[in-house]
Write a structure and sequence with these properties.
It is built from 14 helices and 15 strands. It is an alpha/beta fold and about 425 residues long. The longest helix is centred in the first third of the chain and has 17 residues.
Amino acid sequence: MMRERGLSIAYPQRTFATADHIVPTDTHARPFADDQAEAMMAALEKNVSDFGIEFYGLGSDRQGIVHVIGPQLGLTQPGMTLACGDSHTSTHGAFGTLAFGIGTTQVRDVLSTQTLSMDRLNVRRINVNGSLPLGVHAKDVILTIIRTLGVGGGKGYAYEYGGAVLDRMNMEERMTVCNMSIEGGALVGYVNPDQTTFDYLMGRQFAPKGEAFDRGVAYWRAMASDPDAAYDDVVDLDGSAIEPTVTWGINPGQAVGVLENLPRPEELQDPKIVERAYEHMGWTPGAPILGTSIDVAFIGSCTNSRFSDLVAAARVAKGRQVSAGVRALVVPGSVEVKKQAEAAGLDRVFTEAGFQWREAGCSMCLAMNPDKLNGREVCASSSNRNFIGRQGSPGGRTLLMSPAMVAAAALNGKVVDVREYN
């Protein structure tokens, strides 16, 4: 589109590219077996060269999922407005960044003008108070928020996450929460920057250095909402009441605690959508989610493929074996995460347990690469969407959960309560 209009990149030095969605994770060898994916990769390589954009392609030690490498390189900083042609750009809000997922036409406009045209958002403050029980993770927090407020509850809002639970989270946990803001209908989701944010950024490649970092921290602190800030809405949740959470249907809001039974259509607001979910999934209303059989286990995606995610899953998998007949994949979110995990011996923990240890990429989160479900397979997945066909098969069924819960399901061939392993 830019070539057709004779447009140039307004700020190439503020524009970065990587390869993630279409990348095979069993091998990064070229050419790709998928001709369309190879053509897309070749087009990307030509475009970044023609327009002078820094590119972290295959073979680069900075390659990985865009929402993993941006923070780890220090490109994502508080107070920035950031845009990317991917729905889960809200991940970067963990740094106090306004991060927007945009469509292809908007990508053209941002590249050529470095601006976005949009309406002012309302702000909803979501406080998660108290403490999380043992075995409950950031993924359970965001799934509970979406289940509570609905997949359309955030329409027209920015979500500001806070409260004691968010205050205690590390940056990778905050990224998991912000990542799925769009699944709740919010255009962006963010956490106010604090010392945890600054400590994470210090020393990273694109973060300020020396006195410039100190000036940056002073500016970043000013980005946080004032104590007396007024919000358009405030929601309070009790963190101690959250339990390991599993989706049962065809959107992320259709979720239950692991010890709950599946809801009956008449108990929910839109019985027709619920009936469609049961029709696709094949479950029985009122049945327990605990014990649901799985065929595939996937640990990865921009939601849960960072080092701490892999550590949590490895703690469950260590010294145990994947259940017979389960295909289990662990896909690091970046080359750096892969190296860090291998240095810690996590790759050996997983492979000795029967998991496949893959190259960095988006993998089975979506059907744009060879990692896909087959037929009516059921997948325990640490990804972010359980839409029909999302993982490559029109009949495939996706159960979203935390990486630790995925690991436990892989070992047992069914949904279990990960707290049994603590």
